[in-house]
Structures are given as C-alpha cells and as structure tokens.
Write a structure and sequence with these properties.
5 helices; 35% helix; 22% strand
C-alpha cells in the first residue's frame, strides 16, 4: 500500500474525540490534524457554526493555506462546519474526501453532513438507520 498524506479536520469536543479514535486507521500514512482548538494540534482554524456562519469565510482562507502547505491526498472530517469547509476547499486542490458524520446524530445527518454530500467522495454515517434514510454508507461506529 502506498503511503498517503491525510489531512484530518475536526472541531473541538466530540468531533475531535471521534477523529482521534480513528488514528489507528491512519497507520502507515502521514497524518496532519486540524482543529478549532490551537492547543490540540499544529494547525488550527477559527471556530464557526450555524450561528456564526460568516466565520466560515475565514476558515476557507485558513484551510487554503493549510491545504497548500500539506498537499493532502485525502481530507477526512468528523465535522462540524470547519470540516465541511475543508471538503469544499479540497475541490481547489484535488484531494479525495471523506465525511464521517458524528455518532451523536442518531436520527438524521447533521446539517454539515447533509451539506457535505456533494463534496464527499465517501459519505459515512455511524448509524444504520440514518444510512437507510439518507443513502450514506454505514460501516460501523467510531466510538
């Protein structure tokens, strides 16, 4: 297997814990992490959310710099809006993309998850029922 450069993007809190739980899946690959908490990792982006959506514009510019520097083959996100922005920005740089919706979303995909569908080459949910309703792929739960 050829080693890939992976950019793993997640907001702090539960999204970040789920991303870290996936770290074993990245064995043999070069992984760089991005979080909204600068104390957690080398790269950070501004926190943005549904109520502070305009901050996503700042994320776009921050992510363009990070993606240009890292040049990832794959961008993976467990959410939320900063992760969605990473998948959108990747279109400019040609990396593959993976969206893993939060395990907290037991009934439906999150808003960021729904918006990520056109930008995610692999669109995953952690609940079989959500898969049945949305067409997202279910392969198990992270936590």
């Amino acid at each position: 297997m050829t080693s890939k450069r992976i950019l793993a993007v997640a907001s702090k809190g539960g999204h970040w814990r789920q991303m870290l739980a996936l770290s074993g899946a990245y064995d043999g690959h070069e992984v760089r992490y991005v979080s909204t908490d600068p104390s957690l990792t080398e790269f950070s982006v501004s926190e943005c959310s549904r109520t502070h959506w305009w901050r996503a514009l700042t994320n776009v510019f921050q992510l363009m710099v990070i993606i240009r520097q890292v040049r990832p083959d794959v961008v993976v996100s467990t959410g939320a809006l900063p992760g969605l922005m990473a998948l959108i920005v990747r279109k400019l740089f040609g990396a593959r993309t993976v969206w893993i919706d939060s395990i907290a979303n037991t009934d439906r995909m999150s808003l960021s998850g729904r918006l990520s569908k056109p930008f995610a080459q692999l669109w995953l949910t952690q609940w079989p029922e959500v898969s049945d309703r949305t067409g997202a792929t279910y392969v198990g739960a992270v936590l």
